[in-house]
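Side project, low priority. Logging it here so it doesn't get lost.
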Amino acid sequence: MIKGKKIKGFTFLEVIVSLTFFTIISSSIYLMSSYLISSTELIANNYLAKLSYRSYLERIKVNEKIDDQSNIKINSINGELSFSIEKSETPNNKIILLTLTPTYPKDEPILSYWRVK
C-alpha cells in the first residue's frame, strides 16, 4: 500500500477568522482616511477664507476714510465670501476698531485696528 502525504495548511476556521479580521481592519482604515481627507479640506477652506478676510481688511486700511459696510461680496479660491464691516471707537481717538463679521458661514468676527491719519 502507498501511504499518502499529510497535507499541511490552514484550516477553514483559521481562514474565515483571518478574512474577518482583515475586513474589519481595512474598513476602519478606509473610514479614517476619508475622515482625515474631509477634515483637512475643511481646515484648508476655513484658512483660505480667513486669509481673504484679513487681506480685504488690510487693503481698505489704505483709504483715508472707512465707513460701515454691509453685504460685501468677494470671490476667493474657495468660492464667494460675504461679510460686513463695522467701525467702532476705542479709548484712543486716533485708533479705530474694525470688525469684519462673515455672513455665511457664520464664523467668529475678525478684529483689526486702524490708525486714523
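Brief comment: The chain is about 40% helix and 30% strand.
Revisit when time allows.
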